[in-house]
């Protein structure tokens, strides 16, 4: 078990240079425009989770992510979901949110890799991908693939 935890701590890749969150234009599930800056910073850690409705890992882990949000939203951290399904698949994205009864905000972007890569300034591998932003709005880590939420919790504490 210790090896597994060590692997995930190493896998949660700190970025070599902290950067502030880009001010991207996004839409919520009803089509209302939002800025990424509305959700990043503001005195809390923010974990952005990029997901897709047909991602098996996303479907398997999203309820644990929602539990993390519920535990921490009034304390030190919150979750922001970002669907990469695109507006053409908005019905599937909405179904994902409803099916999993998600309590955290979810936005949607078009599946344009150049746009998606602006979240971290680096390559986008696939879903799920986690981006961790400090309370000041600086991105400090990213990780593609499933990550147990206790690992993210430990990262934030330290």
Structural account:
With 158 residues, the protein is an alpha+beta fold. The protein has one domain (2-157): Glutaredoxin, CATH 3.40.30. Helix content is 32%, strand content 28%. The protein contains five helices and eight strands. The protein has helices spanning 2-11, 56-72, 90-99, 113-116, 149-157; strands spanning 13-20, 25-28, 33-35, 45-51, 77-83, 106-108, 129-133, 138-144. An eight-stranded mixed β-sheet has the order 1-8-7-4-5-6-2-3. Strand 5, helix 3 (90-99) and strand 6 (106-108) form a beta-alpha-beta unit.
Task: Kindly list the characteristics that best describe this protein.
alpha+beta; Glutaredoxin; globular
What is the element layout, followed by pairings?
Layout (H helix, E strand, L loop, with lengths): L1 H10 L1 E8 L4 E4 L4 E3 L9 E7 L4 H17 L4 E7 L6 H10 L6 E3 L4 H4 L12 E5 L4 E7 L4 H9 L1
Parallel strand pairs: 4-5, 5-6
Antiparallel strand pairs: 1-8, 2-3, 2-6, 4-7, 7-8
Compact summary:
With 158 residues, this protein is an alpha+beta fold. It has helices spanning 2-11, 56-72, 90-99, 113-116, 149-157; strands at 13-20, 25-28, 33-35, 45-51, 77-83, 106-108, 129-133, 138-144.
According to DSSP, the number of beta strands is 8
Mind telling me which CATH architecture this is?
3-Layer(aba) Sandwich
What's the story with the biggest beta sheet?
8 strands, mixed
CATH homologous superfamily identity: Glutaredoxin
Can you give the mean pLDDT? 87
Find the CATH topology: Glutaredoxin
Number of domains: 1
Distance between the first and last residues' Cα: 20 Å
- Written as H for each helix and E for each strand, in order along the chain, the element string is HEEEEHEHEHEEH
- As a percent range, the share of helical residues equals 25-40%
Strand order of the largest sheet: 1-8-7-4-5-6-2-3
Strand content: 25-35%
Which geometry do the CA atoms define? Answer: globular
Assign the structural class, choosing from mainly alpha, mainly beta, alpha/beta, alpha+beta, or little secondary structure. Answer: alpha+beta
CATH class, named Alpha Beta
Roughly how many Å is the radius of gyration? 14 Å
Number of helices: 5
């Amino acid at each position: 078990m210790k090896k597994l935890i060590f692997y995930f701590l190493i896998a949660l890749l700190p970025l070599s240079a902290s950067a502030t969150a880009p001010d991207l234009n996004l839409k919520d599930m009803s089509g209302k425009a939002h800025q990424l800056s509305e959700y990043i910073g503001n005195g809390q850690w923010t974990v952005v989770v990029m997901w897709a409705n047909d991602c098996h890992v996303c479907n398997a882990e999203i309820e644990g992510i929602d539990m993390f949000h519920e535990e921490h939203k009034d304390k030190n951290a919150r979750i922001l979901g970002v669907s990469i399904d695109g507006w053409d698949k908005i019905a599937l994205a909405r179904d994902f949110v409803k099916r999993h009864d998600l309590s955290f905000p979810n936005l949607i972007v078009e599946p344009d890799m150049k746009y998606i890569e602006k979240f971290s300034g680096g390559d986008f591998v696939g879903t799920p991908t986690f981006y961790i932003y400090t309370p000041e709005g600086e991105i400090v880590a990213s990780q593609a693939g499933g990550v147990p939420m206790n690992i993210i919790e430990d990262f934030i504490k330290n």
